[in-house]
Structures are given as C-alpha cells and as structure tokens.
Specification:
heterodimer; A: 511 residues; mainly alpha; two-stranded antiparallel ribbon; globular; B: 405 residues; alpha+beta; Dna Ligase, domain 1; D-amino Acid Aminotransferase, Chain A, domain 1; 3 domains; eight-stranded antiparallel beta sheet; four-stranded parallel beta sheet; 18 strands; binds adenosine-5'-diphosphate; binds magnesium ion
C-alpha cells in the first residue's frame, strides 16, 4: 500500500475505478444501480443522499467496498526496505527456469511422440463428456508421463540464486539463503504481525477451550457473514473459524462469489477441455494419480479434482493475473494451419504443475460439494498466495523469503540445532522444503491444513508457514539432535500427523 | 508375578500389544490371565463338557452367547422384542407416529426367511417397487448376499436352491432387509461406517465407543438402476468384497477416517445436522445393546469389542446394518495398522484394573485416563448411583438420554 500512498489518493482511486470498470461483474452492478435510481427509494431532490442510503440498504455499498478490498489485496506490490537492491535477477532466474521447464516439456513430447496441443477427436470428446463426473474411469494411459519437476528440483534452482549485490565469501551459497538481499521479519515483528496469537488470546483450534467458546464463535461468525463485508471476515478469521462457516468465510475474504458470469466462464473452461487435448492435461492427471488418488484423506475427492484441475490448467485469466508473469509458448494445434485461431498460448494458464501441485486444491474439497464453488476458491487462493510458492520471486511473501525466514528463525530460536545441521552438512531447508512449497497440504491432516490456511487468509501472509516449519523442527529437536543422516532426519519428520497447528504457533509467538 | 496371556489368533497386533505391557504369552492349557480367542475357542471353553472353570484372575474377549447380537436374525429378533416390551410398558422411547417407532426406527425393516415369509410378502406388497437385500444369517464378509427387486426373483431363488443337494446350505436361513437405496454418497460412492464398541458388562451395561473408526468406500460409483443390481462393487462396502475389484487401491484401501467424514459433513452440511447424526449413532448403539441385555449371559469374566456396521442415508439418518463380534483385526493399510494397534491398546487399558492384574471382582469403572480414546457411552452403575458429579467425571455424555427411565 505504501507506494499507493506515495502517488496520492486521487491516483489510486482512479486506478481502482479503472480496474473495477473492467471487471466482468461491472455491467450487472451498473444495472442494479440504475434500477435503484428509478425506484421510489431515490428522489431527485435529494439525489445523492437518497441514492447512497438506498445503496447501503440494498447491500450494494458493501459489494463495492468488497471490490475495493479485493483489488487492494491482489495488487499489493513489493515493499522492500532497501531500494538499492536489484531484484531483476529473480526475474531473470524465473525466466531461465521457465525455459528449462518448457524445454523439458518439449523433450518429453518428442520422447513420447505427442504434441503439446491438439483438437480432440469427436469420439474422445464424447467419452470425456460422458465421464465428466467420473473422470477416474476415463480411459487414459499416463504411465509414461512423469512429473516435470519435484520440490527438490525447484529447491536446487533457488539455492543457486546468486545476487549481484552480494559479495560475502564465507557463505556456502548452495546451503542456505543468507546471502540473498531480502529483508524478512524477525521474531518481534512476527509477534506484532500475529498479535492475536502472540497475546495468547483464545483461538479456535486449541482443545482447551470448550464448546461454549465455539458456540460464541459461531454466533459472531454468522453475524459477520450476514454483514457480508470482506475485511470484517478477514479479521474474524484471526481467532479461528468454526468448520461450518469456513467455506462461506473463505469465499467472502477471497471475493470468490459465484454468479452467472463465473459459472459461464467455468462452463467454457470445461468445453475447452472437451475440445482440446493438451499435454498438460496428462501431467495434471498424473499428479492427481500420484497424490490424491493414493491418499486416504483425499481419494474420495479424486473425481472432482480431475474436473477442477483440468479446467484450471486452461484458465487464461490466471496467466493474466499472476503478477510474476510466467513464461509461455505459442503453439500451433497439431495438423492445423499456422493461423491465429489455430494458435494457442501454452500452457494457457501459465501454470506447469510440479509433483504435488494438486495439494493446493485437495484440502479445499472438504469445504464444498459444488465443483464450481470449489474452483473459484481454489483459484483465488492460488492467485493470491500459492503461485508465489513455486515461482522464483523476491516478493516478501515469495518462496525465497519464506525459506530465508525459516532459516533465520531456526538460527535464532535453536542455534544448537542449526549447528548440528551444519556439522552434519545437511541443509535444514532441504528437509522442510516440501512442506513449505505445498503449504503443508498432504503433510498435515486436512483439518490442520485448513486451520493453517485460515491464518494465511486472516493475516494475509504466508510467513506463518515458515514459522510452523521451524516450530515443528524445534518440537522434534531432541530426536533430531540424535541423528546424523538425511534419511534418519527425514524419518524423524516423516509423520507430522499428530501436530496441532494453533497451539504450536501460539507457543512459539507467546512472549 | 507376571500377567499371562493366551491367544489362538495369529494376529501380531494382539501379541505385540500384550508384550508391550510386559505380559507373558502362555498356552491355553497353562495359567492364563487374559485370553484373546476366536469365537469357536470361546464356545468350547464355555461349553459344559469342557468343565473349565475360570478363576477371578481370568478374563476373556467374548461373551458366551454373543450371537444374540452378532447373528443377523437374532439381532433383529431381539430388537423387535425390545421395542414391543418398551411399548407395552408405555415407555416414551417406544413412542410411535405414522405407525413407525419415532426413536427406535434404526434398523431397516427385516424378516427372517423362510420363517417370516408371509409377513415379508405382506410388507413387500405395500411398496412393490422397493429393493430388498438377502443375507445369510450366519455368514460374514459379504458372502452369499444378493439384491432383489421382484418377488418372482425370490421365488425362483428358493426353487433353485432347493434343487441343489446341499442340505446344510438348503437349511441356511436368511434375513431379508429393505435395501437402503438412498445412501449418503461422497464422490458419488457408497460407503458404510465401521465403529468399535467395547462392552465390559451387560448387567449393569457398561459400554464405550472408540473415537476412531473409518468409512469403507465402494470402488465403483453408486448406481441404483436395475442393470447394476448384481454388481456387488456398487452395493457392498465390505473390504473383503471390494479388494477383488479392479479399482481397489491398496494404499488407502478405500478407507476414510470418521474424523475426516465429520470434517466434510460439518463443513458442507452444517454443525447441527452433523452433531445430530453422531448423537443418533451413539443412541442406536446404546439401544442395540439394551435390546440384548436381558438375553446375554453377563459373565463377569467377559468383555467384548464389537464392530458396528452403520449406513448413513442421504437425509443423514444412520441405520444399523449389523454387529460383528469378531471385527477384523487384519490391517489393510498403514493407517489401519495404527488404528487397530491403538484399538487393542485402549481395550486392554480399560479392561485391566488399576492394579494391573485382571480381577473379575473389580467394579469395572476405569479412570478417565484409562479410557484413552474410548468415550463412555453408558455405565448403568454410575447412572444408578445418580451422582451427577461422578458421571460427569467419567464423561458420560449420553447419560442424559436416560432421564426418563
Ligand atoms: N439394508 C441394507 N441396505 C443397504 N446396504 C446394505 C444393507 N445391508 C447390507 N448392506 C451392504 O452390504 C454389506 C454387507 O452386509 P452385512 O449385513 O454387514 O453382512 P456381512 O456380515 O456379510 O458383512 C454392508 O456392509 C453394506 O454395505
Ligand atoms: Mg458387515
């Protein structure tokens, strides 16, 4: 927000107005207002006042406020304290990485003798359409496909980042991130940011508070939902969300409302899936098979995940909205003339799934029965947060910052453990990176993941993920200090299903 | 002096649990304190001919006539009798409305064949379009089960089976139950719940429900059409059936934890209806036990862990399908192993008195700590003492159900 203030309020409001006018729901909104103006509630004599009053009563004002809130939330820019830092090298690294992935996609294609994109045969289309609700029965062999990259490959890339500004020699660049010129919060700053947690306030998710507290939270939560004002909902999440209100609370905070436009758009994505056979489809199918389908917490959602992920992969809005601008290729549909209508941006969403990508969506399946609602909440979550966890960027919420935060906190909290890792030359980040990259999804039980993500939304920050990773390590410190090999360390941390997120975070942040 | 145990089951989960407690394994002829036995071994041990007399320091994992609850026909008989008796007493629990029991309508309408054939036909005629399920009374694991949607099919089946010269099979009795054709589906698939209930005494009734349990999913989408009537992968949730299907996944084994089911239901259906569902489940467990209470020989040496099969319909009403006296202790997945290990551990923790030595003279009131992941469903002794403090202390959350009795 700082940079917005710099240029002054008029500039910002102009930008917001412009962008809201371009929003697909704008037309409907104007129609509503027009209807209101012609109603008896608004009088010519006292036009301004009566219109405002009528808008407030109809909930249009709230709707507008929510739009501004969502705009600000998704247009937050860098807030670097040291302006001398050149962040372009992050961008360059991402471009390089994108190129490498694209190359590996292409070589996988030629290896398997397939193309990136082609039109489906009508027979295939029919089968797919018929089995849309049970895609696990859609006959497709993906045994030869393999994930393009896994978290550990991505970590390699990150560990090789070299800042042009940094000339420190005694740091082993492939071991940690300390040499990168990024500022992360220290413990007092985190305590301030996560005020409710560090003050030890009652938060839902700690077992010590009984049903009375939950009943109270539900009562307040219902009032919050009735108000339908996003910033209040976000504030509400800070003290934990009852299970029965979570789906609506998240939709509200993320601005993932569904109306005609959204459902038509989703339908168009489905149609795109029916008409075009993309190489990326198989990759995401493979990913679902490797993760959710084999997971006793998510297998029941296999079919809905197929639907949602296939649509997601061809959602061009994502490419438009990701601030870090992923790379893409222009490909010509197989066997077609190279005209513009036969050319496709590939991947259409700019997203190439890594091993475990499905885990960004899987926990959300617990909240919705309707794939449409699931889709938009997942998409909003991705656009606001998850894309930063699998792309190289210098954003204060990006994966590099999260890694660095993890390291700093570990060093500070538990120097002994840090030294232990140094001595056995194992980088602690290696052990926890998959947790960070998947925001703990698939590693913690669903309810715990959802509680953690409540906090991500509540404080509009991914930092809590790094914090949790540190605390889990510290929690297992005694066992970790006794082992010296990577395998043994991994086995100490393999099963974290008994972790209770909220109490642990509270313990760490409590003064 | 060490505690000794004996088992005729080749299940590591039993042996490891006992050994972890420092108990020593002995043979059936030796002096054992705890016997974890199959039902057949139990039967012969309890039979008059065996002449075996247990001492105060010996306990065993079955009641002599557990079949009163675990045989499909006897369970139904006992429940029917229980309802009638309550009704005669004028008990509010047996209240009726619309010719149905308001609070005790928790098993699908069921008849024993061939004995109740005429009654069945009468019921069948009331709604000839419904589907029925035929189950042999004495078998398990889905064996011998089939679905029927026409009376003529049943007639044909009975003619056919008579021809086969297999006297023991021909004599086999069946139950025929109204098929729950509107089960709650998740991901389009049918499932049932397997819950564990420990009974340490029937008179007074002392029962505990295990917090963990799982849902067993079919591998094929649910489809109530006639064409799929014979497809057992659609209709029967038994793991022993499903694992033969091509879609079976041995990593998760089609098992979703009850906690996760609850999370999904609370998130999508709301808190109140979910809580009501789980309360109704506890309610039906208690009343199924009350129904057999007068007929089961409440031997002080016995305890038993039952596996309850429950189906939830799409209106979130739970239905009792059957009660197993020897629920499978085989682990199909890694998490299954953890669950069953914990189950056995927690059972032993409840049945052994604080002294650490089995003793049938003990009042069988474990401490809250000893209950671990079991929750007290009912302890009539505590309720009788009507000491609200004690019942609170032991966490009897359902004691309030008995306020009218
Ligand atoms: N009345 C019914 N309605 C719907 N499904 C049923 C019904 N009875 C049984 N089933 C299905 O068949 C399975 C096996 O039935 P059950 O009575 O448990 O016999 P078994 O002893 O063979 O396990 C159940 O787990 C359930 O999936
Ligand atoms: Mg059964």
């Amino acid at each position: 927000m700082e940079e917005l203030k710099d240029k002054g309020m008029p500039h910002t409001s102009q930008k917001i107005c412009d962008s809201i006018q371009k929003h697909p729901s704008y037309i409907g909104f104007i129609e509503e207002v027009q209807k209101l103006v012609s109603s008896s509630n608004v009088s010519v004599n006292n036009f301004n006042e009566t219109l405002m009053k009528a808008m407030r009563e109809k909930g249009i004002e709230c709707h507008m406020k929510n739009n501004v809130f969502h705009w600000v939330a998704s247009n937050k820019k860098y807030k670097m304290d040291s302006p001398i830092v050149d962040l372009a090298f992050f961008k360059r690294a991402q471009v390089q990485w994108d190129k490498r992935i694209h190359k590996s996609l292409n070589s996988m294609c030629s290896e398997l003798g397939i193309t990136l994109a082609r039109a489906r045969s009508s027979q295939d289309r029919e089968e797919l359409s018929e089995k849309w609700g049970e895609l696990s029965n859609y006959d497709i062999d993906v045994s030869k496909y393999r994930p393009v990259y896994a978290p550990k490959d991505f970590l390699e890339v990150l560990l090789h980042l070299k800042s042009p500004n940094c000339k420190v020699y005694d740091i082993d660049p492939n071991w940690e991130f300390a040499h990168l010129p990024i500022k992360v919060k220290d413990l007092p700053e985190l305590r301030q940011h996560y005020g409710e947690l560090s003050r030890g306030e009652q938060i839902l998710g700690t077992h010590t508070y009984g049903t009375l507290f939950e009943a109270e939270r539900i009562q307040i939560g219902e009032r919050v939902l009735a108000q339908h004002y996003a910033p209040v909902a976000q504030e509400y999440l800070k003290r934990g969300c009852p299970k029965n209100l979570r789906s609506e609370m998240w939709s509200l905070v993320l601005g993932a409302d569904i109306n005609m436009i959204q459902s038509e758009y989703y339908e168009s994505l489905k149609n795109h899936t029916l008409y075009y056979d993309l190489m990326i489809d198989k990759l995401i199918i493979k990913d679902i098979q490797l993760t959710a389908s084999n997971d006793d917490q998510y297998f029941v959602f296999e079919d809905v995940l197929y639907q949602v992920m296939l649509c997601f992969m061809r959602d061009g809005d994502i490419l438009k909205h990701i601030s870090s601008q992923p790379g893409y290729m222009q490909v010509i549909l197989k066997g077609k003339q190279p005209t513009s209508e036969n050319t496709m941006t590939f991947p259409p969403s700019g997203v190439i799934p890594f091993h475990g990508f499905t885990m960004y969506a899987a926990p959300i399946c617990y909240l919705f029965q309707d794939p449409l609602k699931l889709y938009y909440v997942f998409r909003a979550f991705y656009l606001r947060y998850w894309h930063r966890l699998h792309r190289v960027c210098g954003h204060e919420q990006g994966i590099v910052s999260i890694c660095l935060l993890f390291e700093r906190l570990l060093q500070k909290f538990e120097p002994a453990l840090w030294h232990h890792f140094r001595e056995i030359s194992i980088s602690p980040i290696k052990v926890v990176f998959k947790w960070l990259m998947r925001a703990f999804s698939g590693h913690l039980p669903p309810e715990q993941v959802l509680q953690l993500w409540d906090l991500v939304l509540a404080y509009d920050s991914l930092e809590v993920i790094a914090l949790l990773a540190v605390i889990i390590m510290i929690f297992r410190k005694d066992n970790l200090l006794q082992v010296t090999t990577l395998t043994n360390i991994e086995s100490v941390l393999a099963d974290i299903s008994s972790i209770n997120v909220i109490p642990l975070l509270q313990m760490a942040l409590l003064k | 002096m060490k505690v000794t145990f004996c088992t005729d089951l080749d299940k590591s989960v039993v042996v490891t649990n006992c050994e972890k407690r420092g108990w020593v394994q002995v043979g059936p002829e030796d002096d054992w304190n705890i016997y974890w036995a199959g039902t057949l071994t139990c039967k012969s041990l309890f039979s008059v001919d065996s002449g075996y007399r247990m001492s105060d320091a010996q306990i065993i994992n079955h009641f002599p006539n557990h079949y009163e609850i675990s045989r499909k026909d006897l369970l139904v008989k006992n429940i029917k009798r229980y309802r009638r008796e309550l009704e005669k007493e004028g008990n509010v629990i047996a209240e009726k409305g619309d010719s149905k029991y308001l609070h005790l309508d928790f098993i699908p309408v069921t008849f024993v064949l061939p004995a109740d054939y005429n009654m069945f036909v009468e019921e069948y005629r009331k709604s000839p379009q419904s589907t029925w399920i035929m189950k042999p009374c004495g078998r398990s694991q889905g064996s011998g089960i089939f679905l029927i949607n026409k009376l003529s099919k049943l007639k044909k089946w009975s003619r056919d089976t008579k021809h086969i010269f297999q006297p023991q099979l021909a004599k086999e009795s069946y139950v025929i139950s109204r098929y729950i054709d509107n089960p709650l589906l998740i991901g389009g698939k049918k499932f049932d719940m397997r819950l564990y209930v420990l009974v340490t005494s029937f008179r007074p009734l002392k029962a505990y429900q295990f917090k963990h349990g799982f849902c067993r999913f079919c591998t094929v989408k649910y489809d109530s059409s006639v064409a799929e009537l014979d497809n057992m992968y659609v209709h029967l949730t038994n793991v022993s059936v499903q694992k033969h299907g091509g879609e079976y996944n041995s990593i998760h084994g089609g098992k979703l934890s009850v906690q996760n089911l609850r999370l999904h239901l609370e998130s999508t259906r709301g808190k109140e209806v979910t809580e009501k569902l789980f309360d109704q489940i506890s309610w039906l467990i208690i009343h199924s036990l009350k129904a057999v209470q007068p007929v089961i020989a409440s031997d002080r040496h016995c305890f038993e862990c039952y596996g309850y099969d429950i189906i939830i319909d799409n209106k979130l009403k739970p239905w009792l399908i059957e009660v197993n006296a020897s629920p499978s202790l085989t682990s199909t997945t890694a998490n299954d192993r953890i669950l069953k290990y914990k189950l056995l551990d927690n059972i032993f923790s409840i049945i052994v008195p604080p002294s650490g030595f089995p003793d049938t003279r003990w009042n069988k009131i474990p401490t809250k700590e000893a209950m671990k992941d079991f929750e007290l469903l009912i302890d009539e002794e505590i309720i009788q003492n009507e000491d609200p403090e004690t019942s609170e202390k032991y966490g009897a959350k359902y004691s309030s159900m008995y306020r009218w009795r």
